[in-house]
Amino acid sequence: QSTLKSMTNDPYPDWRPGEPIPYAALCTTFAKIEMTTKRLEILAHCSLFLRQVLRLTPANLLPTILLMTNKLAADYSGVELGIGESLIMKAVSQSTGRSLAHIKADQNEVGDIGLVAAKSRSKQPTMFKPKALTVPGVHKGLMDIATTEGQGAQGRKVDGIKKLLSAADAHTAGKAVDITKDKGGPSEAKFIVRTLEGKLRLGLAERTVLVALAQAMMFHEMSAKGSKIPSTADLAKAESTLKSVYSELPSYEVIIPAMLKHGILSLPDNCRLQPGVPLKPMLAKPTKSITEVLDRFDGKDFTCEYKYDGERAQIHFVAHDSPLDLVTAPPSAGKSDKGVSNIFSRNSEDLSKKYPDILAKLPDWVKDGTKSFVLDCETVAWDMVERKVLPFQQLMTRKRKDVKVEDVKVKVCVFAFDILYLNGEALVNKPFRNRRELLHEAFVPVEGEFAFAKYSNTNELEEIQTLLEESIKASCEGLMVKMLDGPESSYEPSKRSQNWLKVKKDYLSGVGDSLDLVVLGAYYGKGKRTNWFGAFLLACYNPSTQNFETVCNIGTGFSEAILETLHTQLSTIKIDRPKPFYTHSSGNKDQPDVWFEPKYVWEVKTADLTLSPRYKAAADEVAGGGKGVSLRFPRFIRGRDDKKPEQASTSRMIAEMYQRQDSVAKILSQFRSYH
Ligand code: ATP
């Protein structure tokens, strides 16, 4: 609150009550946020702006929050930006009348296409002042660009971008913007371009926006009631309410109107987990040994399940005769005599077009009294002849889109391991033992189509060892170990939780887990591989700086066929120079031959981790005198199409893995005892 008090809360001059929010007002806040790295200050700027929104134009709260979180709609709607650099450069050139060669030269010098747009726009002579952009107007313009499809889509996208850029910075039109000062200031062109790229780069995490929204709403409600400012306890209550509602129902489209109508503290009565809106899945922490599992769950009851190696699937269903009154109708992906069903990925993408075979068979597994549910499952390739699970690689050969049931060659079996919602009731807060009982009561297994994850509730080391070996023989990755009772065993959406541990056979002796890394660059091959890329530069993600930090070069684990495919795939996302949000070595020898947009995530295994001056991963966290953590002998395992670059392994995870290595742990403990 003291941070809040020291900041001004004057609304933007052209912003009149009830009228659409000028986009320039939002950009002014963005520019203030960009100038600080202090979380509390970022939070305060965000919260003050949202209080103005609530006071002056609450009808624009939804597009404001969407633009602040760099989304156009809820994740499951599938609407995304992430427009490539070349298309943006074309639009900047056309809208500002500068030649593409000039724009490219600027981009080579400045390295930030947002700043290039700001500079180009400010240099442009203007005959008349364009109509100022508004927050809902920019949101709609971006939405049109993102949803443009079909023939000539690229050209129409460029037109859409041109339209926005031509109206940008109406208030400063003709006045030069100094892009070397204050990171380019509140230029609208800069922030439009960054939003188009899919990266605002303000250091504004979605969690911070959520907290700011809760605070602003609490201030607003209290002042509407004539009370003074809310207490710390009021603010904490508002924050925890909004966070928990959002984790069950991650859709601002549903939450914001309900919050404006009923008030923030009444949200849990109006917005709860519901079929049709996927929640972010709970994730597990890696462990290195079964004894570590026993230590962590010290004396508590837990259960060991097979960790199936396929694709995560959240299956939603509502029967036609269900008495449910849903806030938002589920997309009607799979319709049958019994009801409407959807399948969502780990990323909340709609997988219904990939698995029409599952949706067609699903009604057979549902018992008569089961009217609505949300299941957490793994879909696994299934050998119809041998009647057993097939390795993950088989599943990868399935088409991803527009699959027809009659064409399906790789059959899948669904292994259900949790139930999050049943017959109108959210189950996430119930103990796992209880949820599992409900799961087993509500469904009927059908061999090769639907099964419950195999498990044993043993706490005995030897029995767990045997189960782990059996799971590997059954083509699984190992075991998932889960708490059974009490509040610790509730389902924690979107959390990598201590209460779910994974034990994989092949990391019992290694560093812990495999890593998921983003491809930033490539080196041309030698010998047989001269036509393709032979090695690649990989990076992890640092959520606090929103930068990608390089972690290794990799050239092992690729078949010739994979290298050929990768060459085709990656050639489309080449860029002339590294993005400003890549943290990498500047040494001449360390530069890859080509750089890429951050798009693809690969799973990689490593023998161990070491410090290296060539890489920058977790350099701030491991205190290695500027050296980063790097992977030794990395090996490519597979592409992770179900992960976005921002979901790659984080610098923190890599630092923890490095510090946990036996050799490093020994040195650290010697160091501590010595001092
Ligand atoms: P990885 O899949 O590489 O282990 P991840 O980050 O995708 O990493 P984790 O939290 O590490 O996810 O592992 C959990 C994943 O294991 C789930 O996302 C799910 O797809 C899969 N899985 C298979 N069997 C189970 C099970 N019985 N319980 C929970 N998850 C399971």
UniProtKB/TrEMBL annotation:
<protein>
    <submittedName>
        <fullName>DNA ligase 1</fullName>
    </submittedName>
</protein>
<keyword id="KW-0436">Ligase</keyword>
